[in-house]
Q: What sequence folds into this?
């Protein structure tokens, strides 16, 4: 029986495994209200769902440098606060097709502020293989960054342009606008506030122009918008929910 279950698990696509896990779990810790809605639609009873926020917010609050630390990172990179765009690209839809990648790099190079681009190994390999490596020279390219340095640059940038999933969440905590260069996103909670979904190509420059015309105005507007991923207490909320579950399962005698 056990061997049969392992074979079944290997045959199931990852998405089906997640759905199965949700269905049999005693407790589903949903990071957002949107996630809770999806679980309810999938038939998970409401009393088995607790909205906790996302633990990425806890980690960001713990690791984001203070003002002096932020200033040190900017000084080391030769940058000024709100004086640059931070960008990352690594997804196949943007870097595997030479035409698409050339369009992305062209749009980044045409922006009115310097673009800091930590070069993902996949991006580097595709640029080298397709003869586009020279296009990286028009950007402020750096090697992949440690998380603390990246957070500092994200917190002080004028705008982020990326195809990353996690960056979309982090933008809602550091209160910066972002363009998500993808056909779709699994983080719909921040669309229309912190992020905008744009296609690769000229849409990047068109969407960036109004945000870069007055970065301070965009930042002041977003400063009052709460993150849908919580306030940094997701870890303790998760722990309390698990302890409550255990107490209900084994009440004191």
A:
């Amino acid at each position: 029986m056990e061997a049969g279950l392992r074979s079944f698990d290997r045959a199931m696509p990852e998405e089906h495994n997640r759905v199965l896990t949700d269905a049999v779990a005693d407790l589903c810790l949903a990071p957002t209200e949107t996630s809770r809605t999806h679980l309810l639609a999938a038939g998970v009873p409401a009393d088995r769902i607790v909205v906790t926020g996302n633990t990425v917010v806890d980690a960001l609050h713990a690791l984001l440098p203070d003002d002096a630390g932020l200033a040190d990172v900017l000084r080391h990179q030769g940058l000024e606060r709100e004086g640059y765009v931070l960008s990352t690209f690594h997804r196949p839809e943007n870097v595997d097709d030479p035409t698409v990648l050339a369009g992305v790099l062209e749009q980044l190079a045409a922006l009115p502020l310097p673009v800091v681009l930590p070069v993902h190994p996949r991006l580097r390999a595709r640029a080298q293989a397709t003869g586009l490596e020279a296009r990286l020279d028009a950007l402020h390219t750096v090697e992949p960054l440690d998380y603390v340095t990246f957070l500092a640059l994200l917190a002080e940038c004028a705008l982020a342009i990326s195809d990353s999933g996690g960056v979309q969440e982090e933008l809602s905590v550091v209160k910066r606008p972002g363009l998500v260069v993808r056909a779709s996103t699994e983080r719909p909670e921040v669309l229309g506030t912190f992020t905008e979904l744009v296609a690769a190509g000229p849409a990047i420059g068109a969407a960036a122009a109004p945000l870069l015309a007055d970065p301070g105005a965009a930042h002041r507007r977003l400063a009052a918008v709460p993150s849908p991923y919580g306030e940094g207490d997701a870890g303790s909320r998760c722990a309390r929910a698990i302890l409550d579950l255990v107490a209900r399962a084994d009440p004191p005698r």
